[in-house]
Amino acid sequence: MKIDCTIDGKTLTLSLNSDKPLSLILRDNTGDNDTVNHCNGAMCGLCTVLVDGKVMLSCMVPAFEIRGKNVTTFESFRKSKNMKDIEKAYESVGSYPCPECYASRSLIFESLIDEGITNPEEILKELSIVKCPCMDPEDEIMIVRRGIEIRRKRNVRRSQFA
Ligand code: FES
Predict the structure, then answer these.
(1) How many CB atoms sit inside 10 A of residue 160's CB?
(2) Which residue has a Cα nearest atom 3 of ligand 1?
(3) What's CA 35's distance to the chain center, in Å?
(4) Which among 39, 130, 147, 158 could bridge 45 via Cys, Cβ 3.0 to 4.6 Å?
(5) Residue 57 CB less than 6 A away from ligand 1
(6) For the chain, what is the mean pLDDT?
């Protein structure tokens, strides 16, 4: 089947099996090297992407579900101003994800910061899809809260100079 979607800002028409997982589409059809295909079964959380801004495990998203959607992988997100906010939050808290889960955790932090979620339980529930044990939960909560502050300040500055 043909599927129209946007991946990392590029509008694409893909011809593929409607059940093909998004993680394999990213590997085979877009040359994405950042999204990991590890367990292919919702066990590791290392294949996280944003679909219309929402966190999704790309190994669990069949092709037909991305029709008309906007997919963001870490490959494009890493160069964004929003990622700079998250890097500042990592630095401020003095805690960083390990190289293995850096991409997935950063995308989840982005979703939480974008939605302004400060509730510890909600933060940890969302981050629990990444099974890598490298981060202290207290640090994760502080990173989201710090990220929200940093994002707000940047948005205020931007509106003052608009
Ligand atoms: S590859 Fe492990 S959760 Fe998707």
Answers:
(1) 7
(2) 42
(3) 10
(4) 130
(5) yes
(6) 94
- R_g of the chain computed on alpha carbons: 16
CA–CA distance, 133 with 25 (Å, rounded to integer):
28
Mapping DSSP to helix (H, G, I), strand (E, B) and coil, where does residue 27 land? helix
Q: Is 47 in the pocket of ligand 1 (CB under 6 A)?
A: yes
Res. 114: pLDDT tops 70: yes
**How far is residue 46's CA from residue 132's CA, in Å, rounded to a whole number?**
9
Find, among 143, 66, 157, the residue nearest to 111 by Cα: 143
Can you tell me which residue has the tokens 């294949």?
47
> Does ligand 1 have an atom closer than 6 angstroms to the CB of 132?
no
Rounded distance from Cα 66 to ligand 1 centre (Å): 17
Q: How far apart are CA 143 and CA 72, in angstroms?
A: 21
- The encoded tokens of residue 112 equal 């939480």
pTM of the model: 0.94
